[in-house]
Amino acid sequence: MFCSGVLAAPGGKEAELREAASLRQQRRMKQAGRFLHKDSADLLPLDGLKKLGSSKDTQPHSVLQRRLMETNLSKVRGSRGPRAPRSETPGKLHPTQLGGPCSADQEEEEELIVVSCQCAGKELRAVVDTGSRFNLISSACLRRLGLSEQLEAFGSDEERVVLPRGVRALGRVAGLVLALGAVSAECAALVVEDSEKPFSLGLQTLKSLKCIINMEKQHLVLGQADRAEIPFVEGDAAAGDER
Fold first, then answer.
1. Residues 115, 233 within the same domain
2. Which tens digits make up the pLDDT trace of 56-101?
3. How far apart (Å, rounded) are the C-alpha atoms in residues 106 and 23?
4. Minimal CA–CA distance to 18: which of 36, 34, 2, 39?
5. I want to staple 189 with a disulfide (CB 3.0 to 4.6 A). Which of 127, 135, 146, 232 is the partner?
């Protein structure tokens, strides 16, 4: 196919032209052989790929990019899970799906950490409340322990402590002696109106006890040198005992 051009050239140049033509022929054959398989673009590295024709969609790097995008899209769709039916509208969603009051109460109940302790010679269930600085005790629980006389009411001109979740403090009680396993602690508490949490331990007392909350083993670790492990109590059982 290159004879006409080769014969017209001188002897030395003729050999060079033949050699160049032979190299080009070999390259074309190798290139054609590399892309015989329809998925050959997936078997080749991105660097050094040769172009196939003039269309951008048929270039090896375009083929790889398109297939990678399709794979990523399928993974993302799979991670999102099944879609909700289109007929379901936001107005028909359950209040728990919208983060309403019901979901907040349920979430709070599920996250309660309750431990058993003793106070004034009686069994007491204490809620570990890291969201409050102070220990809280309800007026009903204070009566059950026989410590109502120790209640120190707030004075009329005294600024009342602001508590979360709309809880109103009636006064304070000091000198509460708690026994948590082998660990004893004397602390004070704010007296609040009757609530679902008869008694709760706040951050101040938890820090003084060097408390560690171990969610994996479901217990509290108190103290440093002489450590005591206080197991969690089921929330339902704790509520039943306090009633």
1. yes
2. 555 555 666 676 677 666 665 665 555 555 544 444 444 444 444 4
3. 78
4. 2
5. 135
101 domain-assigned: no
**pTM of the predicted model over 0.70:** no
Q: In this structure, what DSSP letter does residue 135 have?
A: -
Find the range with the poorest average confidence among 35-49, 76-90, 153-167, 204-218. 35-49
122-135 burial string, b = 16+ CB within 10 Å, else e? eebbbbbbeebebb
In angstroms, rounded to a whole number, what is the distance separating the alpha carbons of residues 214 and 232? Answer: 10
The runs of H, that is alpha helices, within the chain are 3-7, 11-34, 60-80, 101-110, 139-144, 203-208, 235-242
pLDDT digits (tens, 9 = 90+) for 117-161: 999 999 999 999 998 899 999 999 999 999 999 999 877 655 566
**Domain enclosing residue 181, as ranges:** 106-242
Encode 90-103 in three state secondary structure: HHHCCHHHHCCHHH
